Amino acid sequence: MVIDTGEGDMKNEIAVLHDLAQKLRSQRFKNGSISFERDEVKFEIDEKGKPVRVFFRQFGTANELIEEFMLLANKQVANFIGNVKDKKERKTFVYRVHDKPNVEKLQKFAAFISRFG
Q1: Which of 55, 59, 65, 91 has the smallest number of CB atoms closer than 10 Å to its CB?
Q2: pTM assigned to the model
Q3: Domain of residue 59, residue span
Q4: pLDDT in tens, 92-108
């Protein structure tokens, strides 16, 4: 990857973005952010659509860069919408709320993955 090797198309531009993302991340943690770094659980699926293996995908440097700019974009949208002085000009916007997990599905999933250790 360009970030890891410093080589490839647009290496200078990506290096600048990477440097900025590191600064944003550092500032975020100085301001009290919590790290939820984790490996992503992935499944190998057979030809019948059944999971046959569980493995983990590492959260890498490129993911961190993307995460920082996604957070920055979200923050800027919230600031833009939330900083309207005149009540008549306030806007409503859509945001995502996750439902509570389905207990039965969680139990089935726990039983399935227990086979993998």
Answers
A1: 91
A2: 0.62
A3: 35-114
A4: 777 777 788 889 988 98
